[in-house]
Specification:
Layout (H helix, E strand, L loop, with lengths): L8 E5 L2 E2 L5 E5 L2 E6 L6 E9 L3 E11 L25 H18 L7 E2 L13 E9 L4 E5 L19 H4 L2 H9 L9 E6 L4 E6 L6 H14 L2 E5 L7 E4 L5 E5 L4 E5 L9 H15 L6 E5 L7 H5 L4 E6 L2 H13 L5 E5 L18 E4 L10 H7 L3 E6 L2 H15 L1 E9 L9 E8 L1
Parallel strand pairs: 4-6, 7-21, 11-12, 16-17, 16-19, 17-18, 19-20
Antiparallel strand pairs: 1-5, 2-3, 3-4, 5-6, 8-9, 8-10, 10-11, 12-13, 14-15, 20-22, 21-22
Helix pairs in contact: 1-9, 8-9
């Protein structure tokens, strides 16, 4: 295909919607994925990238809009790459995500749930409590930019605010940019890590060189004025340390389970706090926990599921690959007065059947793996033959693959599955599935 076609303007009918949240059309005998287009629309678009088997394009004009099209709330939508679905009604977003999960289960896993759960939803705006903000000194503009990358570009978008970030940070982007512009180290600060707890908001400033005394004072003065907890990161994640205040902890709670989980600002926690509480409640209900049961929690992290489950059962065994998170999970159990958990460090991508915890009996199993899924551990879980497995997933493709292994190779059935709107206005899909022996 000639590169001369790049930039070509054409009209098309949108006949599909991709897993990445783009409209799908046919043009010149090829599939085209179109940013900003919705199913059923007729649009005018411009080709932006050419590939051998498909092309990419962007909407220039919506000729016949979908009834699900809405006005984006964010002034930066379409430029900032943080959100891709603000032009789509929220109910249509979650319906489309449900379709992605079910399509993957059918096509990749060759399985279908007996029942479909109603979507689990939460706040649509200001929900994001974890983020990594890019920072860039732009000499030509004479100022610092703080925010997310432009869509399809390595450059930072020039943002005034972010509608999905917790407002305690999302409304401070220009304030942070001004703060860093006045610092001597403005060219050597590449990112700010954001972590919002129930009790405090933390910002971690990554800096490539030691900060001057003046810069440290500027940051401390800003922290005192705003009440934000500031941390510095001169090297890798292990180098993170407090700047102001000198003491304090971040935590989030599961009030209905009387559990509080302490975390560090670079620890993994679920992005959407309110949805996370609903998700834990749902997972525990789907497990149908009984007081005499023993439960295995894989990819346990800080104990997001482990500690609430421990309130309902005889024992929970949590396994996590990150040593530091395992230790903090143990500490949280102690602080919560929970004495019926055991915590193990384990590489679940290279599971060792000889490990003691692998040889024990469990009535129920919960797993919440990263995007790579849990393919390596699935045959071993099936051999344990638990009465129920609940799988929480952030990647429909790997959930489908792993579901196929359990169902088609190891005699389980997919009882139910559903979606959870952990990431409104983005194409990211969080889902949950329940498996039982046939």
């Amino acid at each position: 295909m000639s590169s001369k076609r790049k930039g070509l303007i054409f009209e098309a009918n949108i006949t599909g919607f991709s897993h990445e949240g783009r409209g799908v059309a046919q043009h010149a005998g090829k599939v085209v994925f179109i940013d900003g287009a919705l199913m059923g629309e007729r649009i005018k678009a411009r080709l932006t990238r050419l590939h051998r088997r498909f092309d990419e394009a962007e909407v220039l004009e919506v000729i016949e809009p979908s009834p699900e099209r809405v006005e984006p709330r964010c002034a930066h939508f379409g430029v900032c790459g943080g959100c891709t679905l603000q032009h789509m009604r929220d109910t249509a977003q979650i319906h489309a995500k449900q379709g992605v999960v079910l399509d993957n289960l059918r096509q990749l896993g060759k399985v279908e749930p007996k029942h479909i759960l109603p979507p689990l939803t939460g706040p649509l705006w200001g929900y994001r409590r974890r983020a990594r903000l890019g920072v860039k000194w732009v000499a030509k503009k004479g100022k610092v930019l703080v925010g997310f990358r432009e869509r399809g570009s390595p450059y930072l978008a020039e943002l005034a605010r972010c509608e999905v970030l917790d407002p305690s940070v999302g409304e401070r982007l220009q304030e942070l940019a001004t703060l860093i512009t006045d610092m001597e180290a403005k060219e050597r600060i590449p990112q700010i890590e954001v972590a919002v707890g129930d009790n405090a908001i933390a910002l971690v400033f990554r800096h490539m060189d030691p900060l001057s005394a003046g810069d440290r004072e500027r940051l401390i003065d800003y922290a005192r004025a705003t009440g934000l907890h500031l941390f510095l990161q001169p090297a890798g994640p292990d180098s993170v340390h407090r700047l102001w205040p000198e003491e304090g902890e971040l935590y989030y709670a599961h009030p209905t389970h009387h559990v509080r989980i302490d975390f560090l600002p670079v620890d993994f926690i679920q992005i959407n706090g309110e949805l996370n509480r609903k998700m834990v409640d749902l997972a525990l209900d789907l497990l149908d926990l009984q007081p005499e049961e023993r439960v295995l929690d894989l990819f346990a992290g800080l104990g997001n599921f482990t500690l609430p489950m421990a309130r309902r059962v005889a024992e929970v065994v949590g396994v996590e690959g990150d040593v530091a998170m395992v230790r903090r999970g143990e500490e949280s159990a102690r602080r919560n007065g929970i004495d019926n958990t055991r915590h193990f460090v384990g590489n679940l991508f290279e599971p060792d059947p000889a490990l003691p915890w692998m040889k024990e009996h469990y009535d129920k199993i919960l797993l919440d793996p990263p995007r790579a899924g849990a393919m390596e551990i699935m045959p071993l879980l099936a051999k344990m033959r638990p009465k129920r497995i609940v799988y929480v997933s952030c990647n429909p493709a790997t959930l489908a693959r792993d579901a196929g292994i359990l169902v088609n190779e190891h005699g389980y059935r997919l009882k139910t599955a559903g979606v959870m709107d952990m990431f409104p206005h983005t194409a990211h899909v969080e889902s949950i599935a329940v498996f039982e022996p046939k």
